[in-house]
Amino acid sequence: MENLEKAGARGGPLPLLPLINGEPGSGAGPRIPDVNPATGEPFAWIACADSREIDLAVESAAFASKLWRGAPFEERAKRLNKLAERLYQEAESIAGLIALEQGKPYAEAMALEVLPALDHLSYLSRHAHQLSLGEPIEPRHPLYAHKRALYLYDPLGVVALITSSSLPFAQPLIQTASALAMGNAVVLKPSELTPLLGLRVGELCIEAGFPAGLVNVVPASQQEAIRLASHDLVDKVFVTGTVEAGQHVMAAAGCAPRPVVLSLGGKHPAIVAADADVPRAARGIVWGALANAGQNCGSVERVYVEERVAANFIEAVLAEVAKVRMGHPMDGETDLGPLISEERRQRVHEHVAEAEMFGARILCGGELPERPGFFYPATVVLDPPEGARLLHEETLGPVIPIVT
Fold first, then answer.
1. pLDDT tens-digit profile of 33-66?
2. Sign of dihedral through CA atoms 111, 113, 115, 119?
3. Fewest C-beta atoms under 10 Å: which of 76, 104, 167, 263?
4. Structure pTM?
């Protein structure tokens, strides 16, 4: 609880501001509440960036990138190591902030976000130089058969990051650190649902001694996110989100000569064959489906099991799910925290209810709990029909559809 209170104290009565050129911006855009998904109540307010501040953030990054691209790798590694040091020092408070703002259980926040980010920083500080040395290739054109050829890697300039609420700290930090390691500057637009964690990434970079303007964080509306992605001074765009979000960004940014990388989720299946180690398969699939309350883009979202082992597998899955404890993210006994928003919870419940209406059997869960917050129980659905959205659309919830 101490970590939760420490993290919550950051909100205060005044709205938190964008981070531009190493300083708080004006936050002239709309104010949005930062909601604790375990209670459904705001714990802070965020002042979003407007169009002018988006421009200022990109211009600051463009100026800083011209200086940073010439920094020797020893200097970059030094700053990455300092960033890792700050993250290590703040690990507990950051895990508490993830639990507060996104709803992951504290231990899961540490295991799935803080520790992987530390590991990635360690890798970059040791290996970024080798990654930039160039990759020998064999010329395929006969006229160049006697030549030596290399793929060479130079800094691009300004990288725009538009991130999601699924991994609200690890993803933006790892992407930011990777861009910095290779000599680029960053403008980060975090999810509207987890803006405080995005701002914390920017603060840590400043505390690590990265030059002002090299990392800018702009909580903003979807409209301003499109402005960021299509800005003339942005050299590369990474987007994590829905298919619809990717389509909008691609339409705006893809028409310019800049690379756009889209990560738009999926509907990942697990297949259990007749010769499987059934208890082990059940344990792995339950973890893969319920970690982060099923809100990872790589979550197990459907399971196909051979009939010969279906009965044993279903029994094993139900036994594993029965062990899962739903509760407050800061409770040390909690395995399953809340979903990120009421909208997300309603979508999950609609998928489950529709599958049941079409003839699927709800083996456990499937009901909205009567408690504050955006909780949804671990749910097992047997044999949803082929036309159900539960088998085709990304659910992003703690639901395990099983098809024999």
1. 999 999 999 999 999 999 999 999 999 999 999 9
2. positive
3. 263
4. 0.92
